[in-house]
Design a protein that fits this description.
heterodimer, A: 504 residues, mainly alpha, two-stranded antiparallel ribbon, globular, B: 619 residues, 2 domains, two-stranded parallel ribbon, 22 helices, 6 strands
């Protein structure tokens, strides 16, 4: 089944405008509709795996018109977005009953999905910026959705920092246009190859790194995340940590660095440095947290560091021109970690939502012994924690293993050492979660706590199964060749991106 | 392609994983499944041991230079340890089935037992370093689950155990990565790295750290006593006492004899220091403990020292002695923990102060415990003596190695080992006295022996203690010499110790002793009366000589006293220190995260500036 690419953006966008029109009485229909949209997107994303095509809007050929490009990297991201949004939407059915104005929530949710799908499909930088703004603004509103003091403050901080990032990016787009005369990625890439990097382009690239780095919450651009992600409703936290920072941040950054500007040692090391700083700082900050969701948020910073580190290592190795297979290994590790993190971190946020709904608190000191009362939540959290902590055979182990091996293969033993140290910190922080939330003595206050059956458990069980089986993506050759390898080769091919899109 | 190698690994792992998620109502099913599968695994292990050379290979993943193949090989060393590991699995399962001790989340308990069994089998059969790592971590995770099924505070103990072993597992991962780049392969049988340059030495140290942490040696040993105190006794008998020792020492033997080419020098001295320090320090701490399970745990730490010391000698007899001691220790320590568990279950406490005089109430437990206690103390003719004797000889022989660095230190190691052995005996005298001899407190009058299924594993293990001691040549010839590739005829001189004659003489001596006692009893017509002072009959409970007071003088000696207080407060616990360092870093970072927006904006600006500096090449 080969649908035109704009459908990925159009379905959620149209649904987002229809939903708020449905009044209070039609809330179940709105919920159903929203779920159907995410499920449809999931089906579309799964069927588009292995596809590689472009769509020229209004049949205007590039560089005059706008194009949407689907390749291995885009379909990997589309898959992650649709899996997480399906689960989060399912979870929302029950969870969002606590809030008023559910149709508005659903509408913003779908708007965010539309923005993300647009970002990963867009073939020119300006449209990328537009979709990024759609997704970002929807997420500002969703973070403050509860309208409590703390949530509004978080939303405000997020909005200020997010707008600065958007400004950086827009400024970068302008610089690129001034220097190359084009906004289409393929044409920019060709111009960069023809004239080499000049100071203006280098400055534009720096702006992009800072701007997308902020969207990806890399240290030192991460300060908004620990406020924003915990304040949002749990399914939105799952979306933000699970996919938003990756689609808006890591994807865009990787696309621009590898396919548009071309890798260089400098940019590779910048990515490695940002990745390492995020890994270490995020891990230690998470260790000190007693707020369940805040701990998860800091852990996201740490985990996104792994992804960027993998991609950055790949860039460094590619720039050194030593061995392309080593670069592939590093990038494979990074991208697989991206996929893994989107699943297990969203699962962890869903379990935190389930716990918060049952106990009415996010403070881990006030919990304990929930294993017996909430078996499904506990099992889901255990699988996700095992995965994020790198316990084999869960997928997180494989991605970390590949990263460590790529680092030692490139003779960067100290990078490998940092990876394992942070991995130990990750293990300890999730041990802490289990020790204080699920094990130990049940406080009297929580004696009547019960699992919330229905859509919430269904969403968690579904994601748990995905999480438990994801290791197969790298272990089963046909799956790897179908899903991960095309994404890796998009990045390792580098500037060949332009020749693929423009017939010479 | 011998598919039989797959069964003891993947069947328990798969079933164990499923059991973890079963609801409580299906607990009968999980008990049955665990029993059946542990027995089947044991039978398979026996068959694998019978096979000469079996191997299984399945290529899973190839990514450039990185190949992940499932390579399973039955080598003599792994196969014989597998045999015993699976045997422990069966015995502990039997014990657990009959145990009435309160275990939380019963399905997880049995699932984790199967995971531990399957993971151990995987480690012992794996010929691929990465699969070894995978199974290694599965065993770590199963330990976490098992410890967490204990009572109050077991969540803390489980966390601490997983965190500490997790650190060493991370080291293992890094070490394996380094071994891979250095040698270009993961296949254990193809690796032989000289330890002359820095990188292989670092890799060796990382792998060694993983091995000794799992086995429970210093400096990362403190998870053993902590989990010993809070985990169910059966868990301690299965993992830290038996499987973790077997696996840790297996890995140590592997890296010392196969993966790396080691010569006498700094590395062996480091190993010997770890061994000797572990023996002496842990037993000193054990002596003054008041909690039975905690005391046993410190001995579990102390005994590892002998194995490490034996291996560090690099002499055939020393290594053989180390492996033999590993086997013996697993047997008697597992037995001791089961006895401890039985006592705790029957009386409801593991505090030595509250126990006493149980010898008559629980005669079978007493018998098993006494045999195991004599074994661990190295009293001939029990098995602990046989292997310690070999370790001593290894140390002496190492001293005779010509032209080797650091072998002159052998008297230190020998003294430490013998001193430790004496202290072990002292400490078990205390245990036997406080639990089984002494006086029965009134509270425990109704105590009964535990059920048959629980006594059986203890007696089996105690019988093994005797058998491996008296006929020590049997396990040596059958299991250990082939494992070290010493051929059928190649006899490693095991001193001139004639165990059978000695045993006979000892038995005669004990018989004469009993004779004298019996004669005395009949001749004098001993009268037993209640204690009578100050015109009153004193209650039983007050007329007890508590075993916990035996070595109080040691703990109040100048110098030692401060050490003991510091130890009690956790000053020497690497876990606490690691935690504190983490808190410092975290505190600093939290101080930076003030929550003030302008500060964050400054960071963004500075970050942008740095990126611009780097990318626009402004330097």
């Amino acid at each position: 089944m080969s649908v035109p690419l704009p459908v990925f953006v159009a379905i959620p966008l149209v649904a987002a405008f229809v939903l708020p029109v449905l009044g209070k009485g039609l809330k179940p229909i709105a919920t159903l509709l929203a779920n159907l949209v995410t499920i449809a997107l999931l089906i579309l994303a799964v069927t588009s795996i292995g596809d590689s095509r472009t769509y020229e809007v209004g049949d205007w050929s590039i560089p005059l018109g706008i194009n949407l490009v689907l390749d291995g990297l885009s379909s990997l991201l589309l898959l992650a977005i649709s899996v997480v949004s399906t689960a989060a939407m399912l979870f929302s059915i029950r969870y969002m009953e606590q809030y008023t104005a559910k149709p508005k929530y659903l509408s913003l949710f779908l708007l965010m999905v539309a923005g993300m799908n647009g970002v990963v499909l867009s073939g020119d930088v300006f449209n990328l910026y537009v979709f990024l703004e759609i997704a970002s603004i929807a997420s500002y509103a969703l973070v403050g959705f509860g309208c409590e003091h703390e949530e509004l403050e978080a939303s405000f901080k997020y909005m200020v920092l997010g707008s600065i990032a958007s400004t950086f990016i827009l400024f970068g787009v302008a610089m690129v246009y001034a220097n190359t005369g084009s906004l289409n990625m393929a044409y920019i890439s060709r111009a960069v190859q023809a004239m080499g990097m000049n100071a203006g382009l280098a400055f534009a690239l720096s702006l992009f790194v800072a701007g997308f780095g902020l969207k990806a919450a890399l240290v030192p651009f991460h300060a908004w995340l620990p406020d924003a992600h915990p304040s949002a409703p749990a399914p939105i936290s799952a979306m933000l940590s699970g996919v938003l920072i990756k689609a808006l941040g890591v994807y865009a950054l990787a696309r621009l660095v590898f396919n548009v500007f071309g890798v260089s040692l400098e940019v590779g090391w910048v990515l490695v440095a940002l990745g390492l700083a995020s890994m270490v700082a995020g891990a230690f900050l998470a260790l000190g947290q007693w707020d369940f969701k805040r701990l998860l948020a800091y852990s996201s910073i740490s985990q996104i560091g792994y992804v960027v580190l993998g991609v950055g290592l790949g860039a460094v190795i590619l720039a050194r021109e030593t061995n392309i297979a080593w670069a592939s290994l590093a990038i494979l590790g990074g991208l697989f970690h991206l996929l893994n993190h989107s699943v297990y971190k969203s699962l962890l946020f869903l379990t935190s939502g389930s716990v918060e709904m049952a106990t009415g608190t996010r403070q881990m000191t006030e919990m304990g012994g929930l294993a017996a009362r909430m078996p499904v939540t506990r099992a889901a959290c255990a699988v996700a924690s095992a995965s994020i902590a790198g316990v084999p055979p869960f997928p997180g182990f494989w991605s970390k293993l590949i990263l460590v091996l790529a680092a030692v293969q490139a003779q960067m033993y100290w990078v490998a050492a940092v990876i394992v140290v942070v991995s130990v910190c990750t293990l300890i922080m999730y041990l802490k979660v289990h020790r204080f939330v699920f094990l130990g003595e049940l406080p009297e206050r929580l004696a009547s706590v019960r699992e919330s059956w229905g859509s919430m458990t269904a969403a968690m069980v579904g994601l748990t199964c995905v999480c438990a089986l994801m290791g197969l993506l790298v272990l089963v050759p046909s799956l790897r060749v179908g899903i991960l390898d095309p994404a890796v080769s998009v990045l390792t091919d580098g500037l060949a991106y332009s020749t693929r899109l423009i017939s010479p | 392609m011998d598919k039989i190698l797959l069964y003891p690994v993947f069947v328990p792992l798969a079933v164990g994983f499923v059991l973890l998620f079963l609801p409580r109502s299906l607990r009968l099913a999980s008990k049955t499944a665990t029993l059946v599968i542990s027995i089947v695994s044991f039978v398979q292990a026996v068959r694998i041991f019978g096979l000469n050379e079996a191997s299984y290979a399945w290529s899973i993943l190839t990514l450039g230079d990185f190949r992940l193949d499932l390579l399973l090989t039955a080598q003599p060393l792994g196969a014989f340890i597998l045999l015993f590991a699976m045997g422990f699995g069966v015995l502990i399962t039997l014990y657990s089935l009959a145990s009435k001790a309160q275990i939380h989340r019963i399905n997880e308990y049995y699932g984790a037992i199967l995971l531990a069994i399957g993971g151990s089998a995987g480690i012992l059969l794996s010929n691929h370093l990465l699969f070894l790592l995978i199974f290694w971590e599965i065993v770590t995770a199963s330990l976490y689950i098992l410890v967490s099924t204990g009572g109050k505070d077991s969540n803390f103990a489980a966390t601490k155990s997983f965190a500490m072993i997790g650190v060493s597992d991370a080291g293992l991962l890094l070490g394996i990565g380094m071994v891979w780049t250095l040698s270009g392969t993961f296949a254990i049988s193809n690796i032989s790295l000289p330890t002359t340059t820095a990188l292989p030495i670092v890799a060796f140290l990382l792998l060694m750290l993983a091995a000794i942490t799992k086995a429970g040696a210093m400096p990362l040993h403190t998870w053993v006593p902590t989990s010993g105190q809070y985990a169910p006794a059966s868990v301690m008998a299965l993992l830290p006492a038996a499987l973790d020792k077997l696996l840790g020492i297996y890995l140590l033997v592997l890296i010392v004899t196969r993966l790396f080419v080691l010569a006498h020098g700094p590395l062996t001295i480091v190993l010997a220091i770890i061994g000797a320090a572990t023996i002496v320090i842990a037993v000193m701490i054990a002596m003054v403990q008041h909690n039975l399970k905690r005391l046993l745990s410190y001995h579990a730490v102390s005994q590892v020292g002998y194995m490490i010391l034996g291996i560090a000698t690099l002499t055939p007899i020393g290594i053989a002695g180390g492996i033999f001691h590993m086997l013996n220790n697993a047997i008697y320590k597992s037995c001791l923990f089961l006895c401890g568990g039985a006592v705790e279950e029957a009386t409801g406490t593991a505090e030595l102060d509250e126990l006493g005089g149980l010898g008559r109430k629980m005669p079978l437990t007493f018998l098993a415990c006494m045999i195991a206690a004599l074994s661990i103390s190295g009293v001939p003719p029990f098995n602990g003596f046989a292997s310690k004797w070999m370790v001593y000889q290894g140390v002496v022989q190492m001293g005779r190695t010509p032209d080797a660095a650091g072998v002159g230190l052998w008297p230190i190691w020998l003294v430490a080992a013998m001193f430790g052995s004496a202290l072990t005996l002292a400490s078990f005298v205390k245990i036997l006295h406080s639990i089984f001899l002494s006086r029965l407190p009134d509270r425990l009058q109704a105590t009964k022996e535990v059920s048959f299924l629980q006594v059986l594993p203890m007696l089996v293990l105690a019988a093994l203690c005797v058998f491996f001691g008296v006929f020590y040549r049997v396990p040596l010839q059958r299991f250990i010499f082939p494992a070290l590739a010493a051929g059928e005829g190649a006899e490693i001189a095991v001193g001139s110790w004639n165990s059978v004659l000695a045993t006979a003489l000892l038995l005669i001596g004990v018989g004469i002793g009993f004779g004298v006692l019996a004669v005395g009893m009949y001749a004098k017509q001993t009268r037993i009366v209640p204690t009578w002072t100050c015109g009153e009959i004193q209650p039983n409970d007050e007329m007890i000589i508590p075993g916990t007071h035996f070595y109080k003088t040691v703990s109040s000696l100048g110098g030692l006293k401060q050490m003991y207080t510091g130890q009690e407060r956790g000053y020497f616990d690497t876990y606490n220190h690691g935690g504190k360092m983490g808190f410092v870093v975290t505190g600093l970072l939290r101080w930076l995260h003030s929550g003030i927006l302008p500060a964050y904006l400054t960071w963004v600006t500075l970050g942008l500036l740095l990126v611009v500096f780097a990318l626009c090449r402004i330097w």
